[in-house]
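Tip: read the tokens left to right.
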């Protein structure tokens, strides 16, 4: 099979999440994947861009939660339910879920970075008895920028799930925490020596969160970071996504702090 050829599928449902972020539910499951892997999504006649599915690997549909930032995403946001897109993948390595078993799992997300973490969270919840407790710490710019608002109350009810949100700037209705995501990392109620911390968000958030986790005592090899580098081929051929000695498309997209800490500005 030609690895550059996308599988065509239709957009089944469009769910606006925030003013700039939308979830696209695709019809059926053109590709199988494991949490952490990504795919290239094609807008026909425009181009393709890499995205990590936000849906559970066990779900029957494939979903992506996407922020409108540039050429491909602008055109994607002009599409309607029933329109055709292409998908190729999966690419990269999944999270090593076997290594998380019998441990707490500490998930930290910022902005649209919650999208791949949602897929991870749903995969963990599917086998929740295998883990001690799942923590989510999520920060958005304002209450309007919080993704999955309609799902969070259900997730909060799941036994052994602990969710805490914060916004940089509140509004008159917001009763929760205010401050950047690191402000809700002051108390980390896990066994820091063994717990994996999984982080995804904008570059500055990744940088300061990683620093906070290192200071708190997390092992470098237990801090898992989603590296969102520019990509082209997705299969380790074009050199676009190189970070130090790693190809993010092949060796990532999730690398540990141990892998990247000696690289200058790994999050840029
Ligand atoms: C493995 C991987 C997984 C990803 N998963 C997701 C996901 O689940 N959801 C999602 O929304 N995005 C995700 N991204 C980021 C996504 O690939 C880019 O946002 C996308 O390639 C932008 O394409 P474009 O053609 O619309 O923008 P371009 O035309 O390429 O860029 C236009 C402008 O936007 C800026 N820009 C590009 N990307 C971003 C960004 N992420 N944030 C802010 N500014 C940006 C560029 O610097 C440029 O100035 C992922 C990236 C990788 C590598
Ligand atoms: S995107 Fe081509 S080598 Fe990684």
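Filled-in amino acids:
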């Amino acid at each position: 099979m030609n690895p550059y050829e996308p599988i065509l599928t239709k957009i089944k449902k469009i769910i606006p999440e925030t003013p700039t972020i939308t979830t696209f539910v695709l019809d059926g499951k053109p590709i199988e994947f494991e949490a952490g892997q990504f795919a290239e999504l094609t807008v026909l006649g425009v181009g393709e861009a890499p995205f990590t599915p936000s849906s559970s690997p066990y779900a029957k549909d494939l979903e992506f939660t996407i922020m409108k930032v540039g050429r491909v995403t602008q055109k994607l946001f002009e599409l309607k339910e029933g329109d055709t897109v292409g998908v190729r993948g999966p690419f990269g390595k999944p999270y090593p879920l076997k290594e998380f078993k019998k441990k707490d799992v500490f998930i930290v997300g910022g902005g649209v970075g919650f999208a791949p973490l949602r897929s991870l969270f749903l995969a963990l919840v599917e086998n929740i008895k295998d883990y001690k407790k799942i923590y989510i710490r999520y920060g958005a710019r304002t209450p309007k920028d919080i993704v999955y608002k309609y799902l969070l109350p259900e997730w909060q009810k799941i036994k052994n799930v602990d969710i805490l949100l914060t916004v940089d700037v509140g509004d008159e209705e917001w009763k929760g925490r205010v401050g950047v995501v690191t402000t809700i990392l002051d108390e980390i109620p896990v066994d820091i020596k063994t717990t994996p911390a999984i982080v995804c968000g904008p570059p500055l958030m990744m940088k300061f969160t990683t620093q906070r986790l290192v200071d708190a005592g997390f092992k470098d090899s237990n801090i898992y970071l989603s590296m969102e580098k520019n990509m082209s081929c997705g299969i380790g051929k074009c050199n676009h996504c190189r970070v130090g000695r790693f190809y993010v498309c092949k060796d990532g997209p999730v690398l540990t702090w141990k892998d990247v800490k000696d690289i200058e500005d790994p999050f840029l």
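Residues 224 and 256 are 4 Å apart (CA to CA). The helical segments are 71-76, 97-100, 114-126, 152-156, 203-216, 248-251, 257-260.
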